[in-house]
Specification:
The chain is α/β, with parallel strands linked by helices and 263 residues long. The chain is built from eight helices and seven strands. The chain is 44% helix and 14% strand. The structure holds nicotinamide-adenine-dinucleotide.
């Protein structure tokens, strides 16, 4: 089935690493025109260089999801270069590991600002452009923490739960403009964000995952590209869980280890 993504203009926020970078590659492979922003000049430049070596072109520039003006300017540059915007992926995200009771206001504000408010700001900028094209798609990066919060990662869990609600509300509000809004809920994916945890508590992290392995950025990118495509044309306000079957049951590892016998 044709994805119908050729020449579609895609913006990916914070897309120079991990899930965002792999999503950029997958859209490029589908013939889309891809634009990525990040906060650090050197990081986005080296991403652009690596994409060039793979035979593609990606438009990159600096912008920060905490700063609405910088995102508006980026969108204007993309429209000038590619003629419009069809798909916007709110991918940028951060986390601060700290118990809620001892977390200071700066940390709280920063995570909420990037992970939740940044999604609203990005969408707000994208909407008139996508509407002008007659419709399109917004995809938000949520997290398994939105379904089952993580102790000491409370701000992130709260922000991502907010993303799920925002996705549903915007999906309903934007349907008359033919803009579908969905989110993906990654389980545990091996990226810069998680490398430290994988290095220290790998066994504990694998325990609830039925498939007994971490996801790869491309596992999530495939879901994002699908949701943006015509194949998902009747999917709106959905949260697509891509987690290798995390917390399907209380004893995810029993089928592997046969603790209880009976097979
Ligand atoms: P990552 O750290 O590689 O990617 C996040 C990107 O966002 C980085 O490039 C970072 O520089 C950028 N960024 C952060 N703050 C920004 C800002 N204010 N403005 C612009 N860019 C900013 O990690 P990732 O795992 O690829 O994360 C991508 C998304 O997936 C995030 O929203 C994250 O919360 C979500 N997610 C990841 C996992 C996982 O296990 N890796 C699980 C659930 C959800």
């Amino acid at each position: 089935m044709d994805m119908n993504l050729t020449d579609k203009v895609v913006i990916i926020t914070g897309g120079a690493s991990g899930i965002g970078a792999e999503t950029a590659r997958m859209f490029l492979n589908e013939g889309s025109k891809v634009a990525v922003f990040g906060r650090t000049q050197s990081k986005i430049e080296s991403f652009s260089e690596s994409i060039k070596k793979e035979g593609y072109e990606v438009f990159v520039d600096t912008a920060d999801t905490k700063n609405m003006k910088s995102m508006e300017l980026f969108a204007e540059k993309v429209v000038k270069k590619y003629g419009g915007i069809d798909i916007w992926v709110n991918n940028a995200g951060i986390e601060h590991y700290v118990p809620l009771a001892s977390c200071d206001e700066d940390k709280w504000n920063e995570v909420i600002d990037v992970d939740l408010t940044g999604v609203w700001k990005g969408s707000k900028i994208a909407i008139p452009y996508i509407a002008k094209r007659g419709g399109g798609s917004i995809i938000n990066l949520s997290s398994f923490c939105s379904l089952m919060p993580t102790a000491k990662n409370g701000i992130y869990s709260v922000a991502k739960a907010g993303v799920n609600a925002l996705t549903k509300v915007m999906a309903a509000e934007l349907a008359p403009q033919h803009i579908r809004v969905n989110c993906v809920i990654p389980g545990f994916i091996a990226t810069d964000m998680t490398v430290e945890q994988i290095g220290t508590i790998e066994d504990m992290l694998l325990q609830p995952i039925s498939m007994r392995k971490f996801g790869k950025p491309e596992d999530i990118a495939k879901g994002i590209v699908f949701l943006a495509s015509d194949n998902a044309g009747y999917i709106n306000g959905h949260a697509l869980v891509i987690s290798g079957g995390k917390f399907l049951v209380q004893n995810s590892q029993d089928p592997w280890n046969n603790y209880m016998g009976g097979y």
